Amino acid sequence: MLKIRDLEAWYGTSYVLQKVDIDVERGEIVCLIGRNGAGKTTTLKSVIGLVEKVRGSVMFEGEEMLNLPAHARFHRGLAYVPEERRIVPGLDVRDNLRLGLIASKLKHREAELVAEATKIFPRLAERINQNAITLSGGEQQMLAIARALIARPKLIMLDEPSEGIMPVLVDEMFDLFRQLKAQGVTILLVEQNVERALSVADRAYVIDHGVIVHHASAEALLADAEIQEKYCAV
Amino acid sequence: MADLTLQLLGLQLFTGIALGALYVLLAIGLSLIFGMLTVVNFAHGAFYMLGAYVGLWLLMHGVNFWTALILVPLAIGALGLLVERTLIRPLYGRGLDYPLLLTFGLSYMIVELVRVFFGNTGYPVDTPDVLQGAVDIGVGYFPLYRLFVIAATVVVLVGLWLFLERTSFGLIVRAGARDPEIVRILGVNIARVWLIVFGIGTGLAGLAGLLAAPLQGVIPEMGGPILAESFVVTVVGGMGSLLGAVVAGLLVGVVVSMTSLFAPEMSRVAIFALMAIVLLLRPQGFFGRAGLMS
Known about the structure:
The complex is a heterodimer of chains A (234) and B (294).
Chain A: E1 2-11, E2 14-24, E3 29-33, H1 40-48, E4 53-60, E5 63-64, H2 70-76, E6 78-81, H3 93-99, H4 110-120, H5 122-126, H6 137-149, E7 155-159, H7 167-182, E8 186-190, H8 194-200, E9 203-208, E10 211-217, H9 218-223, H10 225-232
Parallel strand pairs in A: 3-8, 3-9, 6-7, 7-8
Antiparallel strand pairs in A: 1-2, 1-4, 4-5, 9-10
Chain B: H1 2-37, H2 44-60, H3 65-88, H4 97-118, E1 134-136, E2 141-143, H5 144-166, H6 168-178, H7 180-185, H8 190-216, H9 223-237, H10 242-262, H11 267-281
Antiparallel strand pairs in B: 1-2
Helix pairs in contact in B: 1-5, 1-6, 1-8, 1-9, 1-10, 2-3, 2-4, 2-8, 2-9, 3-8, 5-6, 9-10, 9-11, 10-11
């Protein structure tokens, strides 16, 4: 479904991704792990179109994404939840959710889809008219995920979704990932919480200094203390 | 004597509000454009002047004032679309100074072109017949046309507010001013949004120019001073804040008109003094977000 080949990326003159290859098949949860600064976020941002200097190939359902502007990639079915969540301050929770549909062809079903999202995330229902910036970190993360899911993407990429969130919400979130997988949504996940991430993932890639250094099934990697120690210990 | 002074103050207050209404129309456009596109539009005064001249040209060719009131913002807005699409768009992502210098140069070219076609001297513009005369507003007789300027501005503001708060495009504008990247990855072609916002801003400047024409006549240089004053308004109100533009626009209008009552020679300096005080006490302006310019 997603085929990343020889992906290179630069920030200014620093060479961040040095030929990355990643495959994600339909319905899989694939995890990308590695230390801070290894290139995880840059990989996701390159796929969604937020890195200016990129080279290589990102094929999504047989179509080259690197030639498309970011907004066109949304319409192909790609979604991205950034690490900083990027809830729009000043807008209430409902408007943040509506924003997820604003350019979508599902926009005419807005009322129904917003209601559905609040059913999946009951915490958001209680705060639907509240300025989104007043939500707790975990609630903001839920809102960011809901906003990305509301237009029914085919593949969703999440950057450190469990970071700084209280454990009970982390549990809810990983349950949600399992449900999404069951519904056929494909997930590319970047996580610091490696054990947790591997417990829901099918496969995992390990990235270090902009290079994929290891690739294995989630089970195998979970059992591989040496690799975990070498590339993932914080 | 006390009565007379109170009356005079009252009338001067209304004069200030009418003047402030023009500032508001200009500052809202400047603020929208800066908030969304981070372009400091130095050609805004030139668009204002062009609005007055296009209005004058229409009136000279037998178009009535009310029709001109619709046509002028459309024409200047369309010109704004053209300018954004062809001149400003290639400069995005290069920082504040490129579009600033471009629009600065553009304003000189527009002023020069108007001089070529209309000459260096100004023209008076008649107040439309039905808006001539004065009405009793309780504190005395006030020119009907100035009341009309205030009313027209209120109508535009209410329309703009409804547009921003009640439409999908308005939601995109509100969100895009805060976080354009998020709006892009949610499927919005932000370049198109910027184009339209620039057109709306310049259209409002054109409208302000037409509204100002019967008050002060038209000359090619009319955009310069009011641009400087409108920048003061956006800075005092807070760059990027529409509410700030409204509040500060009215405040600056009233300050100008009050100081010209008591100390006419100080009226132009007074607003810069006001700006200095506001910036000392609150560097981001009344409703601005801190750090927007850094």
